[in-house]
Design a protein that fits this description.
The structure is a single chain. The protein is mostly helical. The chain has a single domain, classed as Amino acid/polyamine transporter I, CATH 1.20.1740. It contains 19 helices and no strands. α3 packs parallel to α10, α3 packs antiparallel against α12 and α9 packs across α12. The protein binds tryptophan.
Length: 460
């Protein structure tokens, strides 16, 4: 493998900072800012956070290294990467293909939630929130958005449109440039909000909630933390693999993976340190569920000084985070069509952007009374949106995670595994780190993931 030429340079990152920004941009998303705070709230805080950090370090990071490594070594998109490195054994290509499918599916409903963020961004700009602080008014506002076919489709169109435009411009001119600026802005916005958070009376209770021990931590919480660690790091379906394939042959894999995981974690914890002080300052419960950022935060912020600006900054932050993640999901599908089928970027991006747009329409309709919403709920017990999320998050991500771990842990020959781990990285030459990594991808991660899946099937 080592003698393979690099890709041509326009399909490679300009710098390793660019790679870290793009990959951290993929990882930092709605998962960090929307979901992590509310599941932390639901699971009681501190102990959940600690367990989540453990999952990131012990399982997430090793798989991230494995994924980025497969990409860099093969210089190929998911399906071809497995094809090349397994010397044509077609079973492994299924792992790549399932990943591409999962990425397409995730983006189709991710765009709907991002669309709600866009709508709230507009409301914060034009001052369209209810005048009184009656919670019911805010709940109604959110419910009517979720139920509105017209608004959901409109914002889905806008969001997919922007995502497609960035991906059309390619690796360097589109994705890398957007990620560099976007991530810089994101950290500034988050930092600004966190400083604002320290001035609020709810700051110390919030610190205690996020870092103190809590007693309602259960098995179910543990599984939720694990599953979310995967989702948050964008692992299991070849998104990091695709970005890794735009590295040069001897770029650092271990060090950059660590940087990405740290950035992702900082934003997740940072989001909690923004949202909980706000919620506690006006006496709201942290366990508000999915409506936390769309209902509780506007209610709370608008009662606080500079709340209007705070809201604007917050939804801008949410949008940036969602966009850089969506870009990575679309890029993965696009890379597959370019690499495996020889399409041009323009053709692949417009076709995939259009296809994912159409696939998202049932999700856009899921809040309504029609077939994809209320209808399916009666038949399946969940809407199309819920079913897509359930299939992707609970099954496709963990399955892909097992596939990647087993592939790097057992299928690559040990010579190649060692060489690739060391190549380009100072940390890679640390013997004990290599040992721990192999332990994690060979044994720990497949076993733990299988246990989680059995639990999901209610066998455990
Ligand atoms: N990690 C992103 C988030 O936290 C979502 C995401 C982007 C993702 N690409 C992915 C999740 C690939 C799984 C796989 O919101």
């Amino acid at each position: 493998m080592t003698d393979r030429a690099n890709r041509n340079s326009s399909s490679q990152w300009q710098s390793s900072i660019g790679f870290i920004a793009a990959a951290a941009g993929s990882a930092v998303g709605l998962g960090n800012i929307w979901k992590f705070p509310y599941i932390t709230g639901e699971n009681g805080g501190g102990t959940f956070v600690l367990f989540y950090l453990l999952c990131i370090a012990v399982l997430g990071l090793p798989i991230m290294v494995a994924e980025v490594m497969i990409g860099r070594t093969s210089q190929s998109s998911p399906v071809r990467a497995f094809q090349r490195l397994s010397m044509g054994n077609s079973w492994w290509q299924v792992v790549g293909a399932l990943g591409v499918f999962a990425g397409i599916l995730i983006l189709s409903y991710y765009s709907i939630v991002a669309g709600w963020g866009l709508h709230y961004l507009l409301l914060s700009i034009v001052g369209g929130f209810p005048q009184d602080s009656n919670p019911q008014a805010y709940t109604d506002l959110f419910d009517s958005l979720v139920q509105s076919v017209r608004l959901n489709i409109w914002w889905h169109t806008v969001f997919m449109g922007i995502t497609t435009l960035v991906v059309l411009r390619g690796i360097r001119g589109g994705i890398e440039r957007f990620a560099n600026w976007g991530m810089l802005a994101l950290f500034l916005l988050l930092g600004g909000l966190a400083i604002y958070g320290t001035t609020l009376p709810g700051f110390f209770p919030a610190i205690e909630f996020v870092f103190g021990f809590s007693d309602n931590f259960t098995w179910k919480s543990a599984l939720e933390a694990l599953g979310h660690a995967f989702f948050s790091l964008s692992l299991g379906i070849g998104a990091m693999l695709t970005y890794g394939s735009y590295l040069k042959r001897h770029d650092d894999v271990v060090g950059t993976s660590i940087a990405i995981a740290i950035a992702d974690t900082v934003v997740a914890i940072g989001a909690c340190l923004v949202l909980f002080p706000i919620a506690f300052s006006v006496g709201l419960e942290p366990s508000a569920g999915p409506g936390l950022i769309f209902i509780n935060i506007p209610i709370a912020l608008l009662q606080l000084p500079f709340g209007q600006i705070g809201l604007l900054v917050f939804f801008l932050l949410l949008l940036l985070a969602a966009l850089t993640s969506a870009i990575s999901l679309l890029e993965m599908a696009v890379a597959f069509f370019i690499d495996s089928l020889g399409w041009t970027r323009t053709l692949a991006t417009s076709t995939m952007g259009g296809f994912i747009y159409l696939l998202g329409i049932p999700s856009a309709l899921s809040g309504g009374e029609g077939f994809f919403g209320a209808g399916l709920r009666q038949i399946l017990g969940m809407t199309w949106f819920d079913a897509a999320d359930y299939l992707a998050s609970n099954w496709l991500l963990p399955l892909g995670g097992i596939g990647i771990s087993l592939f790097v842990g057992w299928r690559l020959n040990s010579q190649q595994r060692v060489t690739e781990f060391r190549d380009g990285s100072r940390l890679g030459s640390w013997q004990w780190l290599y040992f721990l990594w192999v332990l994690a991808i060979r044994w720990l991660s497949p076993i733990v993931i299988v246990l989680v899946m059995l639990y999901n099937l209610e066998i455990l």
